[in-house]
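Write out the bound-state structure for magnesium ion.
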Amino acid sequence: MKEKLLNEMTLRFPSLSENERFARLAVSGFISSLDPALDELSEIKTAVSEAVTNCIVHAYRDRVGEITMQVRIYEGQLIYIRIKDKGCGIEDIPLARTPLYTTAPDEERAGLGFAIMESFTDRLRVSSRAGGGTAVTMLRTLRTRKAANGDKSKEG
Amino acid sequence: MSVRTFYDPKTRALLAELSGDIDHCTAAGLREPVDKEIMQRLPQKLILDLSGVSFMDSSGIGLIIGRYKLMTDLGGSIVLTDPRPEISKLLTLAGIGRLCRVVDTHKSGSFTGGVKI
Ligand SMILES: Nc1ncnc2c1ncn2[C@@H]1O[C@H](COP(=O)(O)OP(=O)(O)OP(=O)(O)O)[C@@H](O)[C@H]1O
Ligand SMILES: [Mg+2]
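---
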């Protein structure tokens, strides 16, 4: 990344379902200094929820394993989020990323997680090895809020 | 996360008011009481009131599609009401509009307490 790194954090937590909410709130809290707009925040939280849920329901299907979540803030309102597991891995990544593809249809999974991550971020990178775990990296640049502030000062 | 259900025997509509965050963790706890009511009442229409839903991801989409399939199997239909803008966006992305109507009750005025009369 050529942009300057301004802040970063790493969290490690077990693949318990209640940690889906924790992960969303942690990211939301960490990036709050950038004052993201409500729609941006909600999209980032949704993308994080998808990646963490995939670790819980797919990577560590019948066991509890470790999830690592790394968040970095770069100059220019650029947010980097990396969510990693050491679970079962994905054999065919392009197939897994196909909208509506799911290996768990009987569990009411829609097969939309990757499609949602893709449309709610600027860039999604998936790296995985069968048996060796998966890492999902997402990049999202926030809109600058200068325009909004300008409008406010005009009103006031 | 919680759900409240109301059944109107006159219209045979079952209203389920969902509230809070819908994710993988909370989906099962919402699904069970709704399905129990559906199997008991056999409604013609299921109305999922989303106005109180503060967050939703693909697990919520799975929940809606699952109830759609159940209602279709029973010869009924499903309607979604009043999702917040960010949840509307997710519903559109998932193509939910092809399965059921998404209604803004404040605009349509044809709903009382969420149940169409
Ligand atoms: N971390 C992971 N480890 C192992 N397999 C994964 C992982 N993430 C995704 N997959 C595989 O990729 C498939 C597609 O994932 P995606 O999130 O798009 O859909 P889903 O999880 O099946 O359904 P939904 O996200 O709509 O509930 C999954 O069914 C699973 O087989
Ligand atoms: Mg998923």
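---
Chain B has a mean pLDDT of 92.
The pocket of adenosine-5'-triphosphate (ligand 1) is lined by residues A 50, 54-55, 58-59, 85, 87-90, 96, 101-104, 109-114, 134; B 58-59, 62 (CB under 6 Å).
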